[in-house]
Amino acid sequence: MSDLVTPAALLLDFGGVLVQTTTRPDWRLRLAEHVHRLLTTAGGTELTVEQVAADIGAGAAADSHWKDAMSRPAAPAEMTQRFFWAELVAADWPDAARTVVATESAALCRRMGELRQERANRPGIERLLGLARDRSIPVAVVSNALCGVVHRDHLAATGLAELIAVQVYSDEIGVRKPNPALIEHAARALSVPTGAVWYVGDTYDRDVVCGHRAGAGATILMRSRSTDSCPYEPRFAPDAVVDDPDALRALLTATDSVH
């Protein structure tokens, strides 16, 4: 940690760093009811709400396994919203029903994001972002997301968006961490060298690997509920490990002023 210097920019993951999430137990049923109404309006009557809910659950499980697998390739692409709905959820549905969810996939991913999780800002994140503002260190969000709009909505609603210069989400640029292109994209948007940023995430297989591949000036691991669920033995070590945003703020305060 003693070798760390003040970054030219601070790049933060969304889930696990900016916010902490809690999954709602009834999200599949609520989403299935929404999807079933769409199908019924379009003239579909073959599927029940319970069947739709079961397939949404199966699609979410397949998506989770796919995400683990995609932390291995050197430059993984992001899954499209259309693929999630037409292939992972509705693969065995009648053609007309598959067409409905494929056509409405962007809106359905947004609704799924809204229903699936409760989001709360991690304690201390406002203080961290305030310190970055006071020290003229621009901040970017760099996050995997099937629907980044949901993240943008949360940041706008909680006022954090005013303290963030750039937001980069995998669904919007078509690649996902650990593809280093996400970090490189954010650094370019901030007009700073990739080697001069701190990248902060909460997972080894996606975030620490991504920071290493991108050649970030420092890769910081912020511990969360997801940190110890790495599907593979970590290949790379972070430059520092912190428990929460206040610990990251203390680490930032302790660095040199040299960029």
UniProtKB/TrEMBL annotation:
One Pfam family named in its UniProt record: Hydrolase
GO cellular component, one term: cytosol
InterPro entries: HAD-like_hydrolase_sf (IPR050155), HAD-like_sf (IPR036412), HAD-SF_hydro_IA (IPR006439), HAD_sf (IPR023214)
GO MF, one annotated term: phosphoglycolate phosphatase activity
GO biological process, one term: DNA repair
Stated name of the protein: HAD family hydrolase
Species annotation: Actinocatenispora comari
